[in-house]
Amino acid sequence: MDRKGLLLVLSGPSGAGKGTICESFMKKNKDVRLSVSTTTRKMRTGEVDGISYNFISKDEFEKSLKEDGFLEHVHVFGNYYGTPKSVVEENINKGINVLLEIEIVGAMQIKEEYPDAVLIFVLPPTICELEKRIVKRGTETDDQIKDRLSRALSEIRKIDEYSYFIINKDVDEAVDYMESIIKAEKSNVKRYSQQIINLYQEEK
Q: Taking the model in full, what pTM does it have?
């Protein structure tokens, strides 16, 4: 039975640990493709162009946007973020699972266009822990940290739009949960019911 790949969407508040989970997950799951998002923000220490993000100018982003080059996009904290459309669709049509690590606004765009997408919400253990993680990064001012915490609380209220949630207390445990979610979705009757019926009818 030919199956399209799963479109996995991982999102949650800034500082919840999405990037760390993705990195650990991809090391263990070589059959899943991580879609590299495109952004206009400045590169942070330790990031690599083409791996962490595709870093481009605002003009380049807006040009691609006009050409319908993004599966989803969002403008937050003065910068654009987006998921290139062609690569994602090509992999899914080949039966390859694709993982997106994106903002919640983008995840809602994906949900509207791709109802079969598997949306996973990453939560910090507590708001206090989230604040510690953001402060530790050392990339935001005090006012920006307050804005991020306020935004995080607002984003958490949208969790009922998601299929699953993961509380990121331990990265290895979070990765285990993600792997379990994929196994469950590969046996989801609603996702594959017609294909299964057609397959068994053909074997009669």
A: 0.81
